[in-house]
Amino acid sequence: MKLYQALSARGEARSGSISLSELLSQLGGLNGLRPSMPPTLLGSKEEEIPSSFQGYVEHAYRQNGIVFACMLVRMMIFSEARFQFRRLSKGRPGELFGTEALSLLEKPWAGAVTSDLLARTIQDADLAGSFFATTRGKGENKRIVRLRPDWVTLILGSYLDPRDDQVGAWHLDAEVLGYMYQAGGKGSGNDPVFLERENVVHFAPIPDPLASFRGMSWLTPIVREIMGDKAATTHKLSYLENGASPNLVVSFDKDMDPDELKKWLEAFKANHEGAANAFKTLVLAAGASADVVGSNMREIDFKKVQAAGENRIAVASGMSGIIVGLSEGMEAATLANYGQARRRDSDVTLRYLWRKMAGAFATVVDTPTAAELWFDDRDIAFLQEDLKDEAEIQHKEAITIRQYVDAGFTPESAVAAVESGDLSRLVHTGLFSVQLQPPGTQIVGANGANGSGDPAAVPAPSSGA
Fold first, then answer.
1. Which of 260, 286, 333, 360 could form a disulfide with 203 if both were Cys (CB 3.0 to 4.6 A apart)?
2. How far apart, in whole angstroms, are the C-alpha atoms of residue 42 and residue 50?
């Protein structure tokens, strides 16, 4: 039973937008559905990166060049794919084909194409863990609308027993009944809109272990790495702005008044501690002296320290450092290494994301019978094999097709079997190579002596005929 049907059974069905309190009141009275809200990061330090969509956008994507570079490379390659349908024959995949049903994904909204849709898809998934979209309008005016992920609430319950008020996120029968979208977020005063599950695209490539249906951003495990990289960048900037100055151990006269010493220390810390105050000119008084314990960035091996953090961020993104263009990856940059990294990123990361993406968008597309929504990556330059490898593959495929044709299979079925890897698609003509005929058998064609229109094998005439 759908949610709106359950509400209708109680005489409470409404269309359009309803207030948050009304919806939660109806859902609570109906079956105790509990909305699943995005998590927040515990902590009160101002330098912490909030574990939320807006926190990641403001403090990671917009302020960290390594995060931006990794996300940009993911987006540029991911958005190159196209949607197609893939035939299924006895559970095996077949050729790709397209229909008019794909026009919604090819032109998702005014002035946009598939690459624009996929760019938004992977960007939201990277930052929020989930991408949400729905459709509006009908016919030629039908379009896809992106939903800001932190303004979406998952409505959980059970279709088996809609009146069960004990269904939570970890209930055995729990599932997503629908989605609630409130423009401006909680507290905006805008009325939320309930969206049926069948009309929402929910792309969550990395599942959140603490949630049943929500996704997790790949930035979450590396928040500390991002903070460390930002601190290193601030440290470098301060070094260049203030001039190279030593790290110091400061000592004082043993007869210095403790209260005066305390005030002096507070002033010293306020003016010299922290990355923003690093390397300022040091002026000492009150009998204080300083001893140098470090003199330059080379002694802390700054390049390696920062490169290690960059590499960890790239690893979490699923992209190789050599592909992103990070310093540590470029040091090992060779043609062979680049090819290996490209294959790794495409086989492990990108194809996984595309498979999940196709499954998510299948909810808003009319898929033909015996087919599934799939992706077409044949025109993506990043995934093209080296010319030598491609030539070898084509050569082997051509030999295989020739062998099938020589064995009596139709050329069309031989090509289809090689392209799909499904040998059950081979169709035999009923004709065999002459080597398979008994000795003395004569092969005649359509205009043969037997007078029939079909090729046939007839016994050879005897010498006394």
1. 360
2. 8
| Residue where the block lists tokens 């043969």 | 448
The encoded tokens of residue 75 equal 């987006």
The encoded tokens of residue 190 equal 């805008």
As a whole number of angstroms, the distance between CA 216 and CA 442 comes to 71
CA atoms of 19 and 420, how far apart (whole Å): 52
- Distance (Å) of CA 446 to CA 430, 434, 454: 14, 17, 5
75/96 Cα distance (integer angstroms): 24
> Rounded distance, CA 417 to CA 222, Å?
45
One DSSP character per residue, 141-193 reads: G-EEEEE-GGGEEEEEE-SS-TT-TT--TTSTT-EEEEEEE-TT-TTS-PPPE
Measure the CA–CA gap between 42 and 52, rounded to whole angstroms: 11
Cβ 94 vs Cβ 422: under 8 Å: yes
Please state, as a whole number, how many other Cβ atoms lie within 10 Å of the Cβ of residue 427.
13
Domain ranges of the chain: 1-239+297-384, 245-295, 387-459
Q: How many CB atoms lie within 10 A of CB 84?
A: 21
Give the rounded percent of residues in the chain with a pLDDT score beyond 70.
69
Residue 356 to residue 203: CA distance in whole angstroms: 7
Note the pLDDT of residue 163.
Answer: 62
- Stretch among 2-16, 69-83, 91-105, 203-217 having the lowest mean pLDDT: 2-16
Helical packing angle, 387-406 and 411-420, nearest 10°: 140
The lowest-confidence range among 107-116, 328-337, 373-382, 444-453 is: 444-453
DSSP H or E segment with residue 7: helix 3-9
Q: Residue 465 pLDDT more than 80? A: no
Q: Are 102 and 112 in contact (CB under 8 A)?
A: no
Q: What is the value of pTM for the model shown?
A: 0.69
**What would the mean pLDDT of 109-124 be, rounded to a whole number?**
97
| CA separation for the pair 178, 16 (Å, rounded) | 14
Closest CA to 212 of 443, 35, 447: 35
Q: How confident is the model at residue 37 (pLDDT cuts 50, 70, 90)?
A: very low
Give residue 206's identity as a one-letter amino acid code.
I
**pLDDT attached to residue 144:** 97
Helix (H, G, I), strand (E, B) or coil at 368: coil
Give the type of residue at 344: R
Assign 361 to helix, strand or coil.
helix
